[in-house]
Structure formats: structure tokens, C-alpha cells
């Protein structure tokens, strides 16, 4: 008669005990809850004086747009920013976590953070979770060693590139980069190409949409341009505003229950501290 | 199993063929030798259609001189991506169609729109019988001054537009077309636009090769260029030592 001996404390990492139960539920027709993804077009580009990051602002839950203006460019350090594509919770939390680690590291070393530090922290974490943390990132920044741009994939591999795109709109954005990228561009040229690439994603990919966010990183300065371009304005807003007077919706039946009769008021002592 | 033997003289591919295998008759559901994207745009004097000359066998580039753009009749050109043998079969169907039309000898001939419609019927019908021709076709031409450009997919979806693409071209070339195409482009502008898109495809589509043909259909006739190579640039400084700033990574 074999019995499970002592209930051992969980060892950390993922616990796959419920997988069989979930598979059985799915087989019997219960739909798994959708998770919020950031469909997405994110890009990064190295120009003469630094790095420009760009992102769209649409977040999707299955086929529904759940956030029309979300922020996909995350702050990592005063000189390092990171765009995230994939599951929104994963990108938010993994960048948050590395941001904290970087800050502690800055206090410990008394130096400006380096991009490779953020890169190594991110890839170590993601590799350890075998791709289950679905975060695809474009990491860019300028440190003492110069401007850097990297892509990080959910399984933990990284690339170091002069221009990079990630997300469902990455092909549309990459087609703009491949046809227009030049080395040593000026700031204006860089901003123009990055916003054109994001717009290509917004208008050609269904998972991306709404506005263009930009972040320009140069030596000693980071400019976060939220909603740099808004190419999808609401086409008509009624000047008088919208209000719906009684009568717009047909009332089928009315039942009024006075709550006073259901409630007994009792005098009591004041709560103790 | 008491299956009846097929007798001599019976067409083995007819719907009435007896099969020795148990279950319903099934047809090939996957392609072997495939061509990648075909691109098409309308311009001032007509239509430009382009494709590379690769025939891939899974992940190998098996054939490097496959002509995927073929004229049919005087006014029309068909470009195909997908299974090459199915494209060759489509060409025999279209050949019979054109021949039949010619034999009427009535001074009129089929327009690109007619050929597009015929191919749509063929593709959709075969798909409904679970026996598709595994292709996406780009049909373009000029007749009586009207420029025509359309697409049919393997499931029978058809539409026409000012610029079209098949396969990967939809993801990489269409965004460029939507941004940069305009009415009445000259032949130079049109060719440059196609070459820009073909270059991006060569960089980013693993089944594309740097050997392309561009076909030009105008009221005067059809002209398919000889295969040529596109100009590519691999000399970015950042590619020379990419991990200079991140030693140990890649």
C-alpha cells in the first residue's frame, strides 16, 4: 500500500501538478482564460549619437483591443530603456524586476548601469524559465562604452544589432528598416525612420495599432516621447457630447425593494485601536 | 480485406476509382517543390510582375532556374508561388483555354479578367473536393487600355488591387507598396519599387535567392526580363564585430 509520505515543501520553479487537470477541462469544452498580449510592433535603431526605440500602443486580449494606449517602452535605468512584446504581464514584470536589480547594482558599484548588465540579467532569467516567460524584448541604451541595441527572445537568446524589430508587426517594420537604413544617421532621420517603421506595423498588422511612442537615448540624456505620433484620431466627436435621457432604452418592468426594511441598525461600541 | 481490384483501362484518378487503401480517397495535402513570393504592381503603361527563380524542396534550394512567370495569350501573364508541379498543371489548363478561344476565330480573345475568373473557378472547385492546387496565383495584364491585376489563392479567394503579393510578399512587400505606390508611376519608378521589395525579401525570406525576373505587360505586349541579380549591402560596420560592446554574447 503505497502512500505519499510527508508533504514536502515546494522546491521553487514551475509546478506542473495541475497540467493533467487543465488538459481534461479543455477536452471537456471549458475554454482557458485568454491572456493579455501586446500584439505589437517594437523597434530599435542605432544612429550617430545613440539609440532610438519605438513602439505602438495597442494591447490585445484574443481578438479584442483591451488597451488602446498602453506603454510598451519600459524604463530600466536613466540611460537604458526596454521595449516589450509578448504576454504583457511577462514583459512588465521581467523588466520591472531587472530595473530593481539594476538600481541595487548601481548603489553597490556607484556607477552608471551598462546595457550588457541589463542584457545578462534578462537573458539569465528568461533562459531559466525555458521560454515559458513569454517576453520578447528590444533593449537599448547608451553607457560609458557607447550606444548598444540588443534583442532578447523568450528562450533567452540575444542578438546585437544596428537595427531590430520584434512582435507581430516586426516584418512590416523590418521591411521599412531594410529598405531605408543607413549608417550614422542624424537624430531627425532616425526618428523619421523609426516612426515610419512603427506606422508600417500599425497599419499593416492587426495586432498593432493606435499611436507611436518614441524614446531617444543619447549620452547623458533620455527623451521619452509618449504618443509622438497619433495617426488614428477619433474621426468624429459630437460637439454637444453624448447623454442618454430616460426613454432611450425601453423599460420592460420595474420592481422597487426598499432596503430600509431589510436592515437593522444596532448601536455599538467604537472599534478598538 | 475484400477490396475490389482496379481493372485495366480504368482511370486511377477518377472519382470512381476503387482504392486498395481503407477509408475514403485522399489526395496529397502538402507541397514538395515550392516557389516563394510573387509581387505585382500597376503603373502608368501597364502592369509589372516580379518573382525570383527558386524552387525549394523543403529547406533546400533545389532548383535555381525555375520560371515562375509565364505569359498566357497576348494580354495576360500568370505568376505562381507554391507547388511547381501544380503550376505546370495550371499552365496546361490555361493553354487549352487559350487554344479553344483562338479556335473560335471570332476576332476577340480572353482578357486577363476572364482568365482570372476561370482560374478562380478551377481553384475553388478543386478545394471543395479536398484536392487543391497548392498555389497562389498573380494574374496581370492589359487589354483595351484597361490594366488588370489580381490574385487567386489555393482555397479560391480572389481579389484585384493596384498592388498585390503572395506568400511572404504580403508581410514584407505590401507595407512598402502601401507606403510608396502611387498612380501613374513610370516604368523606372515601378521597377525600382519592385526591386526594393525584392531586396527586402532576399534579406528576410529564407527561401528567396538573388536571381529575379521582372515581367512588363503593356498594351504593346508582354516582356519577361532575363534573370538578374539585385544589389545587396552586407558592409555595415555594426556587422563586422557586432558584440564589441557585449563581449561573450552574440
TrEMBL record, chain A:
Keywords: Cytoplasm, Hydrolase, Nucleus, Protease, Proteasome, Threonine protease. It catalyses: Cleavage of peptide bonds with very broad specificity. GO terms for molecular function: threonine-type endopeptidase activity. It holds the Pfam family Proteasome. SUPFAM superfamilies: N-terminal nucleophile aminohydrolases (Ntn hydrolases). Component of the proteasome, a multicatalytic proteinase complex which is characterized by its ability to cleave peptides with Arg, Phe, Tyr, Leu, and Glu adjacent to the leaving group at neutral or slightly basic pH. The proteasome has an ATP-dependent proteolytic activity. Component of the 20S core complex of the 26S proteasome. The 26S proteasome is composed of a core protease (CP), known as the 20S proteasome, capped at one or both ends by the 19S regulatory particle (RP/PA700). The 20S proteasome core is composed of 28 subunits that are arranged in four stacked rings, resulting in a barrel-shaped structure. The two end rings are each formed by seven alpha subunits, and the two central rings are each formed by seven beta subunits. The catalytic chamber with the active sites is on the inside of the barrel. This is Proteasome subunit beta.
Automatic annotation (TrEMBL), chain B:
It comes from the Eukaryota. GO terms for cellular component: cytoplasm; nucleus; proteasome core complex, beta-subunit complex. Its main location: cytoplasm. The keyword Calcium does not apply. CDD domains: proteasome_beta_type_4 (cd03760). Transmembrane segments: none annotated. PROSITE patterns: PROTEASOME_BETA_1 (PS00854), PROTEASOME_BETA_2 (PS51476). PANTHER family: METALLOPROTEASE TLDD, PROTEASOME SUBUNIT BETA. This is Proteasome subunit beta. The lineage of its organism: Eukaryota, Viridiplantae, Streptophyta, Embryophyta, Marchantiophyta.
Amino acid at each position: 500500500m503505497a502512500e505519499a509520505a510527508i508533504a514536502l515543501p515546494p522546491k521553487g520553479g514551475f509546478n506542473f501538478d495541475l497540467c493533467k487537470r487543465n488538459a481534461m477541462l479543455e477536452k471537456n469544452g471549458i475554454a482557458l482564460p485568454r491572456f493579455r498580449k501586446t500584439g505589437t510592433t517594437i523597434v530599435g535603431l542605432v544612429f550617430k549619437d545613440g539609440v532610438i526605440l519605438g513602439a505602438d500602443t495597442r494591447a490585445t486580449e484574443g481578438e479584442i483591443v483591451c488597451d488602446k494606449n498602453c506603454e510598451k517602452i519600459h524604463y530600466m535605468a536613466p540611460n537604458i530603456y526596454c521595449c516589450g512584446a509578448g504576454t504583457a504581464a511577462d514583459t512588465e514584470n521581467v523588466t520591472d524586476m531587472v530595473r530593481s536589480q539594476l538600481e541595487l547594482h548601481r548603489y553597490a558599484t556607484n556607477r552608471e548601469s551598462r546595457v550588457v548588465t541589463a542584457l545578462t540579467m534578462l537573458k539569465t532569467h528568461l533562459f531559466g524559465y525555458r521560454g515559458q516567460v513569454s517576453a520578447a524584448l528590444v533593449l537599448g541604451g547608451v553607457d560609458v562604452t557607447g550606444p548598444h541595441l540588443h534583442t532578447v527572445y523568450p528562450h533567452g537568446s540575444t542578438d546585437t544589432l544596428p537595427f531590430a524589430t520584434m512582435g507581430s508587426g516586426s516584418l512590416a517594420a523590418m521591411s521599412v528598416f531594410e529598405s531605408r537604413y543607413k549608417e550614422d544617421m542624424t537624430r531627425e532621420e532616425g526618428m523619421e525612420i523609426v516612426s515610419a517603421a512603427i506606422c508600417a506595423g500599425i497599419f499593416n498588422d492587426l495586432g498593432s495599432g493606435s499611436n507611436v511612442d518614441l524614446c531617444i537615448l543619447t549620452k547623458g540624456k533620455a527623451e521619452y516621447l509618449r504618443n509622438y505620433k497619433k495617426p488614428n484620431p477619433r474621426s468624429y466627436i459630437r460637439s454637444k457630447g453624448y447623454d442618454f435621457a430616460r426613454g432611450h432604452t425601453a423599460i420592460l418592468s420595474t420592481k422597487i425593494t426598499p432596503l430600509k426594511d431589510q436592515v437593522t441598525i444596532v448601536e455599538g461600541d467604537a472599534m478598538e485601536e | 480485406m475484400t477490396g475490389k481490384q482496379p481493372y485495366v483501362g480504368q482511370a486511377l484518378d477518377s472519382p470512381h476509382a476503387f482504392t486498395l487503401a481503407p477509408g475514403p480517397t485522399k489526395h496529397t495535402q502538402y507541397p514538395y517543390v515550392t516557389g516563394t513570393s510573387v509581387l505585382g504592381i500597376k503603373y502608368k503603361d501597364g502592369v509589372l510582375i516580379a518573382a525570383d527563380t527558386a524552387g525549394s524542396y523543403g529547406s533546400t534550394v533545389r532548383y535555381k532556374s525555375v520560371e515562375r512567370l509565364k505569359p498566357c495569350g497576348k494580354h495576360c501573364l500568370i505568376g505562381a508561388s507554391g507547388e511547381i508541379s501544380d503550376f505546370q498543371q495550371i499552365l496546361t489548363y490555361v493553354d487549352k483555354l487559350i487554344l479553344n478561344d483562338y479556335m473560335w476565330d471570332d476576332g476577340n480573345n480572353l482578357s486577363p479578367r476572364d482568365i482570372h475568373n476561370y482560374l478562380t473557378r478551377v481553384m475553388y472547385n478543386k478545394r471543395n473536393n479536398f484536392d487543391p492546387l497548392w498555389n497562389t496565383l498573380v494574374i496581370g495584364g492589359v487589354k483595351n487600355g484597361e490594366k488588370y491585376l489580381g490574385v487567386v489563392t489555393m482555397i479560391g479567394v480572389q481579389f484585384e488591387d493596384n498592388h498585390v503579393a503572395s506568400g511572404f510578399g504580403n508581410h514584407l512587400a505590401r507595407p512598402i507598396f502601401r507606403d510608396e505606390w502611387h498612380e501613374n508611376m513610370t516604368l523606372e519608378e515601378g521597377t525600382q519599387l519592385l526591386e526594393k521589395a525584392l531586396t527586402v525579401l532576399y534579406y528576410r525570406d529564407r527561401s528567396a535567392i538573388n536571381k529575379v525576373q521582372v515581367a512588363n505587360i503593356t498594351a504593346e505586349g508582354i516582356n519577361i526580363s532575363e534573370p538578374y541579380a539585385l544589389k545587396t549591402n552586407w558592409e555595415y560596420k555594426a556587422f563586422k564585430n557586432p558584440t564589441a560592446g557585449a563581449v561573450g554574447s552574440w
